[in-house]
Amino acid sequence: MTRRHSLALLAVVALGVSAPAACGWALLPPQQPIISVSAIAGKWRGNIQFGRGPYELFYLTINPDGSLVAWWGMRPR
């Protein structure tokens, strides 16, 4: 492969990586500080991995007073 082909390939790869990333970031709303815990109060869920173990479902309840309950597996923590 010639130097010219290498540069062309590098340009295509750089454009292919940077264009979707720029478009994705442009669609996100600007970050806002959390004024109070009640702004994020509610029930949340997602996946969590401890060490190299398997992913487990993770549940989090944030109460308006700032208390929270988190659980994964079969019992609250």
Which terms summarize this structure?
77 residues; alpha+beta; 1 helix; 4 strands; flat
Number of strands: 4
Number of self-contained structural domains:
1
Poorly predicted segments? none
Q: What topology, given as strand order, has the largest sheet?
A: 1-2-3-4
The major sheet is characterized as: 4 strands, antiparallel
Which term fits the overall shape?
A: flat
Number of helices: 1
Gyration radius (Cα, Å) is 22 Å
Short description:
With 77 residues, the chain is of the alpha+beta class. It is built from 1 helix and 4 strands; from the N terminus they run H-E-E-E-E. It is 31% helix and 30% strand.
Structural summary, described in words:
With 77 residues, the protein is α+β, with helices and mostly antiparallel strands. The protein has one domain (3-29, 37-76). It has one helix and four strands. The chain has one helix spanning 3-26, and strands at residues 42-49, 55-62, 68-72, 75-76. It is flat.
